[in-house]
Amino acid sequence: MLLPHTLSLEENVLTARRTTALVITAALTLPLTTAAHPADHLDAGLPLEARVHALLGRMTLDEKIGQMTQIRVGKLRGDCDAVPGPLREDCMKPVLVDAKVGSILSGGGDFPAPDPSPKAWAEMTNAIQKYALDNNRLRIPVLYGADGVHGHSNVVTATMFPHQIGLGATWNPKLIEQAGAATGQAMRATGVFWNFAPVSDIARDTRWGRYYETYSEDPHLAGTLAAAAVRGMQTDDGRTARLAATAKHFAGYSEPKGGHDRAPAFLPVRTLQDQVLPPFTAQFRAGVKTVMINSGSVNGVPVHASKYMLTEQLRNRLGFTGVAITDWQDIRSLVTKHKAAADYPAAIAMAVNAGVDMAMEPSAAGEFTAGLRQVVRDGRVSERRVDEAVRRILRLKFELGLFERPYVDPAVANERVNGVGLDLARKAATESMVLLRNEKSTLPLAKGGKIVVTGDTADDVRRQLGGWTVDWQGVPEQGPVPEAVTVLEGIRAAAPGGTVAHAPGQAEAVAQAKDAKAVVVVLGEKPGAEGPADTEEPALTAAQQGLVDAVRATGKPVVVVLLTGRPQVLGSVAGADALLAGWLPGTEGGTAVADVLFGTANPGGKLPVSWPKRVGDQPMSYDQLPGTNGGESSKYDPAFAFGHGLSYTSFAVGAPSVPATVRADAKLKIGFTVRNTGSRAGTAVVPVYVHQPVAPLQVPDKRLVGWARVELAAGAQQAVEVEFSVEQLALTSGDVDGAGRREVPRTGYEVVVEDERAPFAVR
C-alpha cells in the first residue's frame, strides 16, 4: 500500500507557495455570515480573496453544490440528451436553474448543430452564459471546458497541431509554448475558457490507447514540455477572459496493468514520487490552474477515493492550490466499476472527502447535486469541505476574469480560429519528424523523375489527424472533415507536375514502381482514443509489411513514412532504405513530410520514447532499472533508442566541463561545444544525462537532466551551456516501502554527453 513520508528538498521548493495558501485560508476562517455589501464580489477593484470570501458568504448550500458540478452541453439542447440541436429553455432550466450547475463541457463531438463554425460556437457559449447569469441571483458565470489536445480540436475549421507524442519529438519547449498559445487563442475566441490539456502522464507501454497523448517516456522531458504548453495556453492576450489549462491525469494513469486503459496500476511509492509525479510538479511551478484525476486505481485504491493521492500528495506535498476535477463520470464509477461504494451518495462522500472539488457528471447533474446535499446533511461530508472546494472554484473564475468578461464576440470568432496558426503547425510538424534510418543517403529525394506514393495513410485525413479530432475517436465517418494536407498532396505540391503516381493497392504499386525513381510508402493506424485505441499488437500489420516487401522486391529505393501515434514493431519493414517517423502530424502534416523527403527541411527530431523491437518489449523505457540475470533479456535493447534521430548533416560534440563539486540545493552548469561537420544547415538536439556509479538504491544507468537544441549552419560551431537543478537527482530513500525522505544522495556522479563523461560530486 502507499505510505506517507517526510518532507524532502523537492517539497521545500514549494513551501513559500503553500504557506501563502495557508495564510489565505487562515484569513478566511471568519464566519461566512460576516456582513458584506450585496455587490462586493462584483467589485473588480477589491482584492481577489476578498471577493471570493464575500461571494462564498452569500451562497446557499445548493448554490455551492451547483458550483461543484459539471455537465455536458448535450443536456442543454436538442432532445436534452444525445440528439444535437438548438439550445432549449426547457433543457437549460433543470441544469442551470434547478441544479445551479456552474460548469459545462463539450465532450468529443459536442459541437454546435447544424452549424459547427467558430462563430456558432461563440454564439452557443454566449447564450448559455447569458441564460445562467440572467437566472442566477449572484450572477456567477459558468465555466465552459473542452479537450483541446492538439489545437481547438473539437472545431472542424481549427488548425490541428501534431499530437503530443509528435511535439515531444521536437524537444522544443518554445515551439510547444507557441502551439499552446495558439490553441488557447482559438478556444477563448469561442467562449471555451477551460482546456482539459496537456496530458502529463509518461509513456511506458505502446499497447495503451492514450500513448500518443503523452510527450515522452522521460519524466523531465515530459514535465518540461507540459509546463511550456501550460504557459502558452494560459497566456493572457487581453481580448477575452483567460483560459485555464489542466494537468492530467493525476496520477499513475499511464501505468495500467497490461496496457489497458483505466486498468489498475501498481506503483511502488518510489516509482510514484521519482518518476510519475515530477511532470506534474513542473506544471504546478508553471502555474497550471487545474488538475484532472486518474480514472483508474493505484495499488488497489481508486484514485478518486484516495486521500493519500488527492490530499497528502497533491495538496500537502506538492503544494497544488487549484481545482481538482474528476474525469468523465468517475465518481459514479466508484459504484459501477470499482465497486468501492454501495451507492452514488456513498461514492460522492468518498470522492469529495478524498479531495475532489468538481464532478464531471455528464448526464445526471440532479443526481449528483441531490447526492452531495444528502451526504452533507447527514454529516458524511462537512460543509467546511464543501466551502474549501467551492472557494477554489470561485477563485478560479475570478482569476480567469469571467465575472468581468463572461462573453466573447462572435463576429470575430471565425477570423481568430479558421486557418490561424498554419505556419506554426507546419513548423511543429516538420520539427517532429524523426529520421530513423537512411541507408546509402536515400533521403533527401531529388525532385526529378517518377515517385510512386502508396500505403494506407498516404491520402487519409482521418488517420493523419488521429483521435480527439472533431470527435472523441477522431474524425467521424459521417460529418464534416477538417481541411488538411495529406502526404500525397504534400508530395504532389513539392514535386514537378506529372512525376507523382498514386498507387492505392499493392499490385498497382509494384507495377508503377518498375519505372520509378523511388517508392514512398505511408503507413498508419486506425484513429481512436482511450480504451478503443488499446491494442495487444502494437505492430505493423501483415498487410502493411507485405506491401513494403513487395515494393522492395522491385529493387527500387523504398522510403517508409510512419504516421502513427506510437512506435510500431516494424517486422520486415525495418529493412526499408529509409524510415521516417511522422507521428500524427496534424493539418500541415503532408507539407511537413514532403519538406523533409525532398530536403527543403533537414530533420532534427529525436525520439522522445524508445522504439521496441518486439511486441513483448512492454513496458519499455531507457531508464529501466538494471536486471541481474546476466543474459541479454534484461538489457535495454530497443530497435531505436530514446533520443535517436538522424540528420542530413553531421555534428561533433565536445567533452563536457563541470565544476568538481556542487551543493544539493544548487544548480549545475555544464558546458560543451557543438559543431556542424556536414555540408547542410541543421539542428542538433544534444541530451545531457547524469550517471550515478554507486547508489544505495537501484537507479537507471543514466537520467536525463537537460538538453541543448542548437541550429547551426554548415561548418559552424557554438559553445552551449545546459543548467539543471541538482534536486532532479533526488531519490526516495528507505527500504522496499519507500518510506524515507526524498533527497539527493551526497556522492559522486558523472555528466554524460554523447560518449564523453565528466565527474562531479554533490556535497
TrEMBL record:
<dbReference type="GO" id="GO:0008422">
    <property type="term" value="F:beta-glucosidase activity"/>
</dbReference>
<keyword id="KW-0378">Hydrolase</keyword>
<dbReference type="Pfam" id="PF00933">
    <property type="entry name" value="Glyco_hydro_3"/>
</dbReference>
<dbReference type="InterPro" id="IPR017853">
    <property type="entry name" value="GH"/>
</dbReference>
<dbReference type="InterPro" id="IPR002772">
    <property type="entry name" value="Glyco_hydro_3_C"/>
</dbReference>
<dbReference type="InterPro" id="IPR026891">
    <property type="entry name" value="Fn3-like"/>
</dbReference>
<dbReference type="InterPro" id="IPR013783">
    <property type="entry name" value="Ig-like_fold"/>
</dbReference>
<keyword id="KW-0732">Signal</keyword>
<comment type="similarity">
    <text>Belongs to the glycosyl hydrolase 3 family.</text>
</comment>
<dbReference type="Pfam" id="PF14310">
    <property type="entry name" value="Fn3-like"/>
</dbReference>
<protein>
    <recommendedName>
        <fullName>beta-glucosidase</fullName>
        <ecNumber>3.2.1.21</ecNumber>
    </recommendedName>
</protein>
<keyword id="KW-0326">Glycosidase</keyword>
<dbReference type="InterPro" id="IPR036881">
    <property type="entry name" value="Glyco_hydro_3_C_sf"/>
</dbReference>
<dbReference type="Pfam" id="PF01915">
    <property type="entry name" value="Glyco_hydro_3_C"/>
</dbReference>
<feature type="domain" description="Fibronectin type III-like">
    <location>
        <begin position="684"/>
        <end position="757"/>
    </location>
</feature>
<dbReference type="GO" id="GO:0009251">
    <property type="term" value="P:glucan catabolic process"/>
</dbReference>
<dbReference type="InterPro" id="IPR051915">
    <property type="entry name" value="Cellulose_Degrad_GH3"/>
</dbReference>
<dbReference type="InterPro" id="IPR036962">
    <property type="entry name" value="Glyco_hydro_3_N_sf"/>
</dbReference>
<dbReference type="InterPro" id="IPR001764">
    <property type="entry name" value="Glyco_hydro_3_N"/>
</dbReference>
